[in-house]
Amino acid sequence: MQKIESHNNSPLGESSYDYIIAGAGCAGLSLLMHLLQQPSLRHKKILVIDQSNKTQNDRTWCFWEKEKGIFENIVYHQWQHLDFQSNYFSSHLNIAPYQYKMIRGIDLYERVISFAKQFPNVEFQWEKIVQLATDNEGAVVETEKNSYYASYVFNSVLLEKIGPVKNKYLLLQHFKGWMIETAMPAFNPSVATFMDFTVDQSKGTTFMYVLPVTEHKALVEFTLFTENLLEPEAYNIALGDYILNKLQVGSYTIVHEEFGVIPMTNQQFSSHNGRFINIGTTGGQTKASSGFTFQFIQKHCKQIITSLIRSGKPYGNDTIARRKFNLYDSVLLNVLVNKKMSGAEIFASIFQYNSPQTVLRFLDNETNFMEDLQIMRSVPTKIFLPTALQELFK
Length: 394
Description:
By secondary structure, this protein is of the alpha/beta class. It folds into 3 domains: about 5-55 and about 105-160 and about 265-310, FAD/NAD(P)-binding domain, CATH 3.50.50; about 170-265, 2-Layer Sandwich (D-Amino Acid Oxidase, Chain A, domain 2); about 320-390. It contains 9 helices and 19 strands. Strands 1, 2, 3, 9, 10, 11, 12, 18 and 19 form a 9-stranded mixed beta sheet that branches. The protein has a 7-stranded mixed beta sheet with strand order 7-6-14-15-16-13-17, with helices on both faces. It has a 3-stranded antiparallel beta sheet with strand order 4-8-5. The longest helix has 18 residues, at about 295-310.
């Protein structure tokens, strides 16, 4: 986590802002976009700091929603039909009224930064952040070059690596994706493979995504939930084998590739520390049991905006519902880490005995108690009930 030190006096040489957004990734730029959409907040003096100037297409986000969201105009492709595949259960899923959507990193960066340039009160600095400090009056962001002062800092930068914590679980969701193009039609752009667990499971929970955007172009992604990363070439071998043997595509060009690692952990992330408000993964907005982050970031941004409008302070309240889903996440991580049941079996059971809409609501932390009970009935009670009791009374 970030290093927090006491700060009693802001030096005269520091630049002062209403808000500093530390980190210009999905969380930081999403919050900036939400702020600039609000007439009562868009005049605030805002500074965005990141070590990268965001000119690379370094990642892709996929998520589902019913309505048009704040980034609807940069959705690269969307699907209403998904395939779920495993050796235990497979199905073609119509997820209406949901749409499964893809947004490319470069499109989000360019959209938000170009929009922000319309506002003279918004500044960007491309500098590496080295330290954060706070007191009751404000906060300071120290970079390698300068110091910046603000009433509030929204931070998504992990200054310290997330590591193992006693009595907590930590898995890594690591993935490599290839956007490939073929000379001949090879894909159905109206159907995405949401999870394909028919691949080798010997290393842990392992599946493939196939996200076609045209008949000739698709993002194929190899994803694992394990404690350790693979050797770099292992990802390439798995992708190549799947494209050749499962997709039956022998000739293609890789036009883009991406690699990422997302922590899946029930460790507690501080929502705020003094005048610092943590956002994104740093603020606990990555779902511990699945790694989904994009929509949780958008929900958190809305909570921050609502709080700022109502009270002038960006602090949200913890809820019983959030604690409930944190418990569910801990139970699933316990099962996976201790190898009580494979991830392929768990997800197959959940999709087999529930509507896809209910599953998506559950993954979004939006199901009610009766829907939660139905999800719980889908998985073996003899495994999950003792594990739930263990986590509840830990």
